[in-house]
Amino acid sequence: MHIFNRFLSSHKARALQIGMSEDEQYRCLIWQENQQINVHWQDKKEPLDLLQAVGYQTKFVIIRPIPDNYIWKRTLRLPLETNQEARYKQIIQILKNELPIELENIYFDYITETDLVNKSQLIRIYSLRKNYAKQHVTLYPTILDSELFCYLRGIKYLNPEYIYKIESIDNLIVNNNTENIQIIDKNTQENLINLDNFLFPENTINKYLYLLALGSTLWK
Protein backbone atom coordinates (compact mmCIF):
# COMPACT_ATOMS: atom_id res chain seq x y z
CA MET A 1 0.00 0.00 0.00
CA HIS A 2 1.32 3.43 -0.85
CA ILE A 3 0.13 6.94 -1.55
CA PHE A 4 1.34 10.37 -2.58
CA ASN A 5 4.26 9.31 -4.78
CA ARG A 6 3.97 12.55 -6.76
CA PHE A 7 7.46 13.76 -5.90
CA LEU A 8 9.23 10.63 -7.08
CA SER A 9 11.66 10.89 -9.99
CA SER A 10 11.40 8.66 -13.05
CA HIS A 11 14.44 6.68 -11.86
CA LYS A 12 12.73 5.12 -8.86
CA ALA A 13 13.50 1.53 -9.92
CA ARG A 14 17.26 2.16 -9.62
CA ALA A 15 17.19 4.31 -6.51
CA LEU A 16 18.00 3.10 -3.02
CA GLN A 17 14.88 3.45 -0.88
CA ILE A 18 15.53 5.12 2.46
CA GLY A 19 12.77 5.04 5.06
CA MET A 20 12.95 8.13 7.24
CA SER A 21 11.21 8.99 10.51
CA GLU A 22 12.03 11.65 13.08
CA ASP A 23 10.96 13.38 16.27
CA GLU A 24 12.25 16.51 18.01
CA GLN A 25 15.60 14.86 18.81
CA TYR A 26 16.46 12.09 16.37
CA ARG A 27 16.19 11.04 12.76
CA CYS A 28 16.04 7.32 11.89
CA LEU A 29 17.16 6.20 8.42
CA ILE A 30 16.64 2.59 7.33
CA TRP A 31 17.37 0.91 4.01
CA GLN A 32 17.46 -2.64 2.70
CA GLU A 33 20.34 -4.15 0.73
CA ASN A 34 20.96 -7.79 -0.11
CA GLN A 35 18.06 -8.82 2.16
CA GLN A 36 19.72 -7.00 5.07
CA ILE A 37 18.14 -4.15 7.04
CA ASN A 38 20.54 -1.26 7.72
CA VAL A 39 19.84 1.51 10.22
CA HIS A 40 21.51 4.87 10.84
CA TRP A 41 20.58 7.39 13.53
CA GLN A 42 21.21 11.11 13.13
CA ASP A 43 20.76 14.08 15.42
CA LYS A 44 17.66 15.95 14.22
CA LYS A 45 19.59 19.23 14.41
CA GLU A 46 22.09 17.99 11.81
CA PRO A 47 21.35 18.40 8.07
CA LEU A 48 19.97 15.31 6.35
CA ASP A 49 22.97 13.52 4.81
CA LEU A 50 22.22 10.22 3.05
CA LEU A 51 25.76 9.85 1.70
CA GLN A 52 27.12 9.90 5.23
CA ALA A 53 24.50 7.39 6.35
CA VAL A 54 24.87 4.88 3.52
CA GLY A 55 28.58 5.33 2.95
CA TYR A 56 28.64 5.47 -0.85
CA GLN A 57 27.24 7.55 -3.67
CA THR A 58 24.09 6.32 -5.40
CA LYS A 59 20.61 7.53 -6.31
CA PHE A 60 18.38 7.87 -3.28
CA VAL A 61 14.67 8.18 -2.72
CA ILE A 62 13.20 9.07 0.67
CA ILE A 63 9.98 7.39 1.84
CA ARG A 64 8.50 9.49 4.60
CA PRO A 65 5.43 8.82 6.78
CA ILE A 66 2.71 11.44 7.16
CA PRO A 67 0.53 11.48 10.32
CA ASP A 68 -2.87 10.08 9.48
CA ASN A 69 -4.75 13.01 11.00
CA TYR A 70 -3.48 15.13 8.09
CA ILE A 71 -4.76 12.66 5.49
CA TRP A 72 -8.39 12.83 4.36
CA LYS A 73 -9.81 9.37 3.67
CA ARG A 74 -12.90 7.99 2.08
CA THR A 75 -13.90 4.43 1.14
CA LEU A 76 -16.05 3.89 -1.94
CA ARG A 77 -17.67 0.70 -3.21
CA LEU A 78 -18.42 0.37 -6.94
CA PRO A 79 -19.80 -2.42 -9.15
CA LEU A 80 -17.18 -4.93 -10.22
CA GLU A 81 -17.60 -4.04 -13.91
CA THR A 82 -16.81 -0.33 -13.38
CA ASN A 83 -13.98 0.62 -15.75
CA GLN A 84 -11.02 2.84 -14.95
CA GLU A 85 -12.45 5.97 -16.55
CA ALA A 86 -15.79 5.72 -14.72
CA ARG A 87 -13.99 4.95 -11.46
CA TYR A 88 -11.77 8.02 -11.83
CA LYS A 89 -14.77 10.27 -12.54
CA GLN A 90 -16.47 9.02 -9.38
CA ILE A 91 -13.37 9.74 -7.32
CA ILE A 92 -13.04 13.27 -8.71
CA GLN A 93 -16.70 13.96 -8.01
CA ILE A 94 -16.36 12.80 -4.39
CA LEU A 95 -13.29 14.99 -3.89
CA LYS A 96 -15.09 18.02 -5.32
CA ASN A 97 -18.20 17.43 -3.24
CA GLU A 98 -16.63 16.59 0.11
CA LEU A 99 -13.40 18.57 0.38
CA PRO A 100 -13.46 22.22 1.49
CA ILE A 101 -10.63 23.23 -0.88
CA GLU A 102 -10.10 23.17 -4.65
CA LEU A 103 -8.58 20.11 -6.33
CA GLU A 104 -5.53 22.06 -7.49
CA ASN A 105 -4.61 22.53 -3.83
CA ILE A 106 -4.44 18.83 -2.97
CA TYR A 107 -2.58 15.67 -3.84
CA PHE A 108 -4.71 12.57 -3.97
CA ASP A 109 -4.26 8.89 -4.60
CA TYR A 110 -6.39 5.79 -4.35
CA ILE A 111 -6.10 2.04 -3.87
CA THR A 112 -8.40 -0.41 -5.63
CA GLU A 113 -9.24 -3.83 -4.19
CA THR A 114 -11.48 -6.48 -5.74
CA ASP A 115 -14.18 -7.94 -3.51
CA LEU A 116 -15.30 -11.10 -5.32
CA VAL A 117 -17.65 -12.11 -2.51
CA ASN A 118 -19.74 -8.96 -2.92
CA LYS A 119 -18.92 -8.61 -6.63
CA SER A 120 -17.63 -5.09 -6.19
CA GLN A 121 -14.57 -2.89 -6.18
CA LEU A 122 -13.44 -1.31 -2.93
CA ILE A 123 -11.82 2.08 -3.57
CA ARG A 124 -9.87 3.76 -0.78
CA ILE A 125 -9.28 7.44 -1.54
CA TYR A 126 -6.60 9.53 0.18
CA SER A 127 -6.00 13.26 -0.02
CA LEU A 128 -3.37 15.61 1.39
CA ARG A 129 -3.10 19.39 1.22
CA LYS A 130 -0.25 20.47 -1.06
CA ASN A 131 0.97 23.16 1.31
CA TYR A 132 1.36 20.55 4.06
CA ALA A 133 2.95 17.98 1.75
CA LYS A 134 5.61 20.42 0.55
CA GLN A 135 6.82 20.91 4.11
CA HIS A 136 7.87 17.24 4.13
CA VAL A 137 9.65 17.08 0.79
CA THR A 138 13.43 16.78 1.14
CA LEU A 139 16.23 17.73 -1.24
CA TYR A 140 16.06 14.12 -2.42
CA PRO A 141 13.21 12.57 -4.46
CA THR A 142 10.50 11.96 -1.88
CA ILE A 143 7.50 9.67 -1.45
CA LEU A 144 4.96 10.57 1.22
CA ASP A 145 3.16 7.59 2.69
CA SER A 146 0.49 7.01 5.30
CA GLU A 147 1.88 6.67 8.82
CA LEU A 148 -0.59 3.83 9.43
CA PHE A 149 0.63 1.88 6.39
CA CYS A 150 4.25 2.34 7.47
CA TYR A 151 3.51 1.04 10.95
CA LEU A 152 1.65 -1.98 9.56
CA ARG A 153 4.49 -2.90 7.18
CA GLY A 154 7.00 -2.60 10.01
CA ILE A 155 4.83 -4.75 12.29
CA LYS A 156 4.41 -7.39 9.59
CA TYR A 157 8.17 -7.54 8.96
CA LEU A 158 9.05 -7.94 12.65
CA ASN A 159 6.20 -10.29 13.53
CA PRO A 160 4.21 -11.62 10.52
CA GLU A 161 1.69 -13.48 12.69
CA TYR A 162 0.74 -10.30 14.52
CA ILE A 163 -0.83 -8.74 11.44
CA TYR A 164 -3.41 -11.52 11.10
CA LYS A 165 -5.37 -10.00 13.98
CA ILE A 166 -6.35 -7.08 11.74
CA GLU A 167 -9.68 -7.57 10.01
CA SER A 168 -9.82 -4.26 8.12
CA ILE A 169 -7.55 -1.22 7.91
CA ASP A 170 -10.72 0.90 7.81
CA ASN A 171 -11.16 0.12 11.51
CA LEU A 172 -7.72 1.39 12.53
CA ILE A 173 -6.64 4.77 13.87
CA VAL A 174 -3.23 5.99 15.03
CA ASN A 175 -3.26 7.68 18.43
CA ASN A 176 -0.29 10.01 18.90
CA ASN A 177 -1.75 11.72 21.95
CA THR A 178 -0.22 9.34 24.46
CA GLU A 179 3.35 8.82 25.63
CA ASN A 180 3.34 5.47 23.83
CA ILE A 181 1.93 5.60 20.31
CA GLN A 182 -1.04 3.33 19.73
CA ILE A 183 -2.81 1.79 16.75
CA ILE A 184 -6.38 1.31 17.91
CA ASP A 185 -8.98 -1.01 16.42
CA LYS A 186 -12.15 1.09 16.62
CA ASN A 187 -14.34 -2.00 16.96
CA THR A 188 -12.50 -3.68 19.82
CA GLN A 189 -10.59 -0.67 21.26
CA GLU A 190 -7.53 -2.94 21.28
CA ASN A 191 -4.08 -1.42 20.90
CA LEU A 192 -2.24 -3.36 18.20
CA ILE A 193 1.22 -2.04 19.08
CA ASN A 194 2.77 -3.88 21.99
CA LEU A 195 6.51 -3.47 21.68
CA ASP A 196 7.09 -6.56 23.82
CA ASN A 197 5.95 -8.61 20.81
CA PHE A 198 8.80 -7.39 18.61
CA LEU A 199 12.55 -7.97 18.60
CA PHE A 200 14.50 -4.77 17.91
CA PRO A 201 18.22 -4.38 17.17
CA GLU A 202 20.48 -3.49 20.04
CA ASN A 203 21.07 0.23 20.56
CA THR A 204 17.68 1.16 19.07
CA ILE A 205 17.24 4.73 20.29
CA ASN A 206 13.50 4.98 19.70
CA LYS A 207 11.48 1.86 18.89
CA TYR A 208 8.56 3.78 17.37
CA LEU A 209 10.84 5.71 15.02
CA TYR A 210 12.52 2.44 14.08
CA LEU A 211 9.18 0.79 13.33
CA LEU A 212 8.06 3.74 11.18
CA ALA A 213 11.30 3.97 9.20
CA LEU A 214 11.36 0.19 8.72
CA GLY A 215 7.83 0.21 7.32
CA SER A 216 8.70 3.17 5.11
CA THR A 217 11.70 1.51 3.47
CA LEU A 218 9.54 -1.55 2.69
CA TRP A 219 7.26 0.61 0.51
CA LYS A 220 6.48 -0.91 -2.90
Give a verbal description of the structure.
This is Competence protein A. With 220 residues, this protein is α+β, with helices and mostly antiparallel strands. It has a domain of 59 residues: Dna Ligase, domain 1 (2-Layer Sandwich). The chain is 21% helix and 32% strand. A five-stranded mixed β-sheet has the order 3-2-1-4-8. Strands 5-7-6 form a three-stranded antiparallel β-sheet. A hairpin with a 4-residue loop joins strand 6 and strand 7. Helix 4 packs across helix 5. The longest helix has 15 residues. The protein is globular and about 50 Å long.
Task: State the main characteristics.
single chain; alpha+beta; Dna Ligase, domain 1; five-stranded mixed sheet; three-stranded antiparallel sheet; 5 helices; 21% helix; globular; Competence protein A
- Element pattern in H and E: EEEHEEHEEHEHEEH
CATH class term of the domain at 70-128: Alpha Beta
Q: What structural category characterises the helix and strand content? A: alpha+beta
Q: Helical amount among residues, as a percent range?
A: 10-25%
User: Unreliable runs, pLDDT <50, ≥5 residues?
Assistant: 6-13
Beta-strand content estimate: 25-35%
Q: How large, in whole angstroms, is the Cα Rg?
A: 18 Å
Q: Please list the strands of the largest sheet in the order they lie side by side.
A: 3-2-1-4-8
CATH topology type of the domain at 70-128: Dna Ligase, domain 1
How would you characterize the largest beta sheet? 5 strands, mixed
Total helices: the number is: 5
Rough outline: globular
**DSSP E strands, number:** 10
